[in-house]
Amino acid sequence: MNRQAQAVILLLLGGAVIRASVTDLYLRYVKEGLRPFLIAAGLLLVVAAVMTLWYELRPSAPRAATPTGGGPTGPASGPATVATDHDGHGHHEPRVGWLLILPVLGLLLVAPPALGSYAAEQAGTALNAPRESDYPPLPDGDPVQVSVLDYASRALFDRGASIGDRRVVLTGFLATGAGGEPILARMVLSCCAADGRPIKLGLTGDVPVGLPNDSWVEVVGRYSDRLGRDPVNDAEIPYLEIESWRQVPVPKRQYE
């Protein structure tokens, strides 16, 4: 792979990163707050590629001729010199460099789905360490919109004290829990999809039925003091008593 091919691949990679960053595609890979850094990285790759192409394709500077004959007063004062290009042989980079085109094709041609029920069933719930139970009261409203992570944290570490008898609205996807029962889950990221971990909620009451895994639902319910165990890491899983539910489209932001 010569420098021109490397620059073209670099240009495509930078363009793919920028394309993903200015659309919602990047949300399948990283958290929302990383968009400015992705755009900056993509622009840097594009600039580096353009500069490399310009350097490689610019016309060569003309070389000054070296006199070989003697002047009017005698022979030349020094031996004749001939400019050469190094050793006259091209340099060949390892062919493994062409593998760099694979991530480019992945970004341009493939749009993988966000982590869903399969990832949630293979990993233990992220809420498995004791925390201080100092949660503020829920916002006003009936029912009040809360995230799966917020409800699970309050239900598990606050034992529902900050929830009380309030009705809450949560949105998540369905997965299969212990004993084949449906659970509500949402993936949380620290940085990117590689470190995604699930937040799992057991369901009781009017449990959604007849829907396949990865179906997104909005549920309205109340705190339940029931606790279960995650079969993957044996961590506690809080429950939600559902009063009503409805299927919803896949949200733009699938990670919390």
UniProtKB/TrEMBL annotation:
Domain of life of the source: Bacteria
Record key words, sorted: Membrane, Transmembrane, Transmembrane helix
Every DUF1980 domain range: 166-255
Record keyword Nucleotide-binding present: no
Species whose genome carries this gene: Micromonospora craniellae
Pfam family, one: DUF1980_C
Disordered: region residues: 62-89
InterPro entries on file: DUF1980 (IPR015402), DUF1980_C (IPR048447)
Bias kind Low complexity: ranges: 74-83
Entry's transmembrane regions: 36-55, 96-115
Protein's name in the database: TIGR03943 family protein
